[in-house]
Design a protein that fits this description.
- By secondary structure, the chain is α/β, with parallel strands linked by helices.
- The protein contains 17 helices and five strands.
- It folds into two domains: about 1-110, Rossmann fold (3-Layer(aba) Sandwich); about 125-350, Hypothetical protein af1432 (Orthogonal Bundle).
- It has helices spanning about 15-20, 55-65, 85-90, 105-110, 125-130, 130-150, 155-170, 175-180, 185-205, 210-220, 230-235, 245-250, 250-260, 270-275, 295-310, 325-330, 340-345; strands at about 1-10, 25-30, 45, 75-80, 95-100.
- Strands 2-1-3-4-5 form a five-stranded parallel β-sheet, with helices on both faces.
- It is elongated.
Length: about 350
Amino acid sequence: MVPLSIVVDSSSNLDAIRAQLKNIFELHFYTLDQLESINPERDVVFDIDILAHSNFIFDIREWLARRPKKGVKVVFAADQASWHARAQAAALGASGVCNRPLNGLALMTMLLGDFNPLKDNNFPPTLRSDPAVGSTLDALENIFLSAHLGNPIDFEMVHLAGRMLIRYIADTGAASWIDVVRRHHSRTYQHSLLVAGIIVAFAQYLRISEEDQQRLSFAAMLHDIGKARVPVSILEKPSELDKDEIELMRKHPEYGFEALASEMRVAKDVRDMVVHHHEYLDGSGYPHHLKARQIPDFVRVVTICDIFGALIERRAYKKALSCAHAYSMLLNMGPKLDPDLRREFHFVTDLHLS
C-alpha cells in the first residue's frame, strides 16, 4: 500500500479517516510538534485548522522548504468557506487544498489521480461500450469504490446492470460473456463479472423466473463486496497467496456481510448469498461451517458458480481451465456441493471458449 503521513490537531476524527483510507494507504499519524519525525519522501496531508495554529506556521514553512520537491505532495485540508485558510496554505507552498472534513475520494483523486485500484483503463473501449458490459462494469466499480470509502452504493445502478446482463445472456449466451470479461486485467473484477454471467446463464438453463434471475444477478455482483476491505496488493497478487494472505482473504464473506448488514434495501437472502457462498454441505466451508439444510438453495447455486468462475478465470500464475475440465473438478468435490444442482450444471460443458 502507498504510505501516507497525516498531521492532525485532534484525535476525534481518526477513526473516520482510517475507515475511508486504510485499504489504500499505509497511514502514519502525527501531531504538529512531531514534524521532524515525518518522512520527507512521503505525501503528507495537514488535516489541521491552520489559522488556529499560527505559532506553528514558521515550523511548517521550514519543514516544507526542506522536503524533496519531485513527486512529493503536501495537501492541506481547510474549511470550504475559509478563503483565508486556503490562501495561507497556498502561501506555504501546498500542492493542493481539499475540504475539511476529509473526503476519501477527493483526497485519493488529488494524490493518486483518477482513483480506482481495480479499474482497467486498457479494457477495450469497444467492449465496454456494449450496454450490458458497460453497465455491469460501472455497477461493480461503484460497489467496490463505495465500499472502500464507506459511501452509499448506487443500488439502482446495480439493479439496472442485472437487467442488462439477463438480456445479454438470453440473447448472446454465456460463452460470449465469458470471452469478453476474461479480457479485464483485474482478477477481482474478472471474477465478479464471470460469476454474475455464469449465475444468470445457469438460472436461465434451470428456467428460474426472471424475478429470481434478477435477485441472483444482484447477489452475484455484491457477493465479493467484502474484498473491498482486503488490500489490493493481496487481491491482485500475481502469484499464489501465502498462509497469512489466505487467512485474510477468507474473511471477505464476513466483511461483505458487515458492509450490507444495516442496508435495508438488501434482502436477507441476498445477504445470505454474500456471507455464505464459501460454505459446503459437509460443513468444511467458511466462515460458519454450515451443513446441508442450513444452506439455502440460492446460496448453493452461487457456490457452484463461484467455484467454476475461479477455475476458468485467467490469472498471471495459472492457465484458465476449459469448461469440461473445470466441471470435472466440481464432480471431484463430492459431498461438498449440492448433487442435483451440480448434475444440472453440466450445461457448461457445452460452452466453447476462445
